Amino acid sequence: MAFDETLDTRAIDGFASQSFMATLGAEVMETGKGRVRVRFRRRDGLTQQHGYLHAGVSTAIADSACGYSALSMAPQGADVLTIEFKSNFLRPASGDLFEARGRVVKPGAQIMVCECEVWEIEPKERMIMTMTATMFIMNPEGG
Amino acid sequence: MAFDETLDTRAIDGFASQSFMATLGAEVMETGKGRVRVRFRRRDGLTQQHGYLHAGVSTAIADSACGYSALSMAPQGADVLTIEFKSNFLRPASGDLFEARGRVVKPGAQIMVCECEVWEIEPKERMIMTMTATMFIMNPEGG
Amino acid sequence: MAFDETLDTRAIDGFASQSFMATLGAEVMETGKGRVRVRFRRRDGLTQQHGYLHAGVSTAIADSACGYSALSMAPQGADVLTIEFKSNFLRPASGDLFEARGRVVKPGAQIMVCECEVWEIEPKERMIMTMTATMFIMNPEGG
Amino acid sequence: MAFDETLDTRAIDGFASQSFMATLGAEVMETGKGRVRVRFRRRDGLTQQHGYLHAGVSTAIADSACGYSALSMAPQGADVLTIEFKSNFLRPASGDLFEARGRVVKPGAQIMVCECEVWEIEPKERMIMTMTATMFIMNPEGG
Question: Cβ distance C16 to C10 under 8 Å?
């Protein structure tokens, strides 16, 4: 199993606390300082009109990957809110297995800028989406 | 019931053809030339860590509302692909009932620009999200 | 002259303090609580390869219009930083006179979300660009 | 001099054909298949209220860097239009010398997705801005 248990576990706990991530079948594969890697599959209930993965699925998972990347660089007890994100869709998500690779591009005390690439892993490794996201850090002391 | 049956039914058919919209409980309320109105509820399986609606839910529904707004202005037989979208989140989605109001801002033969506002309807009417989206029109003759 | 002198003058002072707005010939026409209206012209030195207004010109002016819309709702002494913006270009800017209409969509103590429409005024009134922008408020007490 | 004369010269010709790039002092340093590198300086006439480079300057140059990155992968005779772009500003542009590094992330016959990082080069090398842009390819045969 790829997950490194010595690292910050807030990303795993965070995904587990979001019922929507369970609905989407998102599984945290790896997390580190400022990065989160998540896998998910195309399956019934997650598709658009052609049977491909709906753009909203990869976007939602990328949003959470960005958010927990940011959280991994925030003080203990902090919370993260999404201010905004933007996704570009590079090709239809016709594959079966996907991976979202989120990372913090610019850490900060109140604002963190994150990026996430979503890759199709099976049957062919190729990038299907990019996201840029801005996260707001709610600090425990009320920042 | 609010739905006007005299109008273009492609939006309703379109939502019905996207299994993810059923997963999210999205219900088309009204459609017209260049606009689609959709309602959805916060419920188990769609939430983030505080029990609010996950940002990905309103984004996914807004994406479909934009896409079918565009389709309603496209030639018969055309298909619509999302090139990109951007969402700003104005406040946490703590309410129970929500409405996405998509519309075409700039129609075009190949590119349409759409906007969608997502409003919390209950318990309090207030806007929670805005989206700008760019749609690519696949024409029946292969444009 | 359209400018209402009874309103908050920080937008006018702000535009005057940005040398780039003078380079672009941006002129504040009107300002109010949460909104700024600015005019500018296509002229030599501001064009792209076809002689149309460069997309960067309307974007820069829309950014300032959003920023000063936000400032007009911020405490006295506050400063505004652009976190991010997104522009969609609806048609080539082939006209001569343009107007940027910025407004605050969601005020806030630290984050404000703004929108700006850019219209071609002459020879034909039509929208050429939309922007959504996120502004960070630096408060005098260091917020 | 860094510029490789054996490569596609359309980017250099393109920048030279945009009067706004001369106004901004943008200088093409290097171009290749799907990438363009451009330098520019902070100077009088390009600043915001604190004397830093206006966000619109780096955005305009990044837009052109993205556009000519796309053009370098398009058929001879094609033209490129910006559909949309989104910029995140990572820190104030307080430096003196900057570099925009544009590249095509996803080539395509009609749509190309590009990214551009803008770096401060002097006095300190650090990224100040990211852009994601969508370009529309106008083909010579009218595509």
Answer: no
